[in-house]
Amino acid sequence: MSGTQPAPEFELPNVGAGPDPCSLATLSGAESFVVLLFHHDDECHDCRAQAKKAGERFAALRARDAVAVSVLPRDRERAEDWQERFDLPHPLLVDPEGTAGADYGQPVRLPMFAELPVFGRLPAVAIVDTRGAEPEVAWTYRGRSTWDHPSMTTVLEGLDSVRE
């Protein structure tokens, strides 16, 4: 769950708050920590709940000089639907090819069926520490099933451990 490694750069379309397109470089210039929430599908109840909880904990994240970033491996239209329905206060990035998820080690349950939500990418969270010369992945959570999402309390505890 913890340890550091270089954080892969990304630049993806953003349908939520913040710049569009949105990149790690842009976020690194404004935030000390970037909490990447790699959702597995737009139809997943737990993914929706996680994105909404991140929005509800926006102030707690800001108090830690951090921002949540939801990364949805679906097309722009589905991501825009999420933003319309949930009005997230943080970036909601569109990653239809799952490139950023793969770069950050988001697990794939059964690669031969990756395009099917129930078999595709599993949920993951990566906390990127941007305080140094180069951004580093300082904490990760990799789901073992489509229902294995960390609570925002767990994510905030992970963030606090990185901040110390």
Structural class category = alpha/beta
- Low-confidence blocks of residues: none
Span between termini: 16 Å
Approximate helicity band: 25-40%
- Describe the sheet with the most strands: 6 strands, mixed
Beta strand count? 8
CATH superfamily membership: Glutaredoxin
CATH architecture: 3-Layer(aba) Sandwich
Q: Kindly give the count of domains.
A: 1
Large-scale geometry: globular
- Strand fraction equals 15-25%
Mean pLDDT: 86
Tell me the strand order in the biggest sheet. Answer: 1-8-7-4-5-6
Secondary-structure element order, N to C: EEEHEHHEHEHEEH
Structure description:
The protein is of the alpha/beta class. It has one domain (2-163): Glutaredoxin. The protein has 6 helices and 8 strands. A 6-stranded mixed beta sheet has the order 1-8-7-4-5-6, with helices on both faces. The protein has a two-stranded antiparallel ribbon with strand order 2-3. The longest helix is centred in the first third of the chain and has 12 residues, at 45-56.
Write the layout of secondary structure elements.
Blueprint: E1 2-6, E2 11-12, E3 22-23, H1 24-30, E4 33-38, H2 45-56, H3 58-63, E5 66-72, H4 76-86, E6 92-94, H5 99-103, E7 124-129, E8 136-142, H6 152-163
Parallel strand pairs: 4-5, 5-6
Antiparallel strand pairs: 1-8, 2-3, 4-7, 7-8
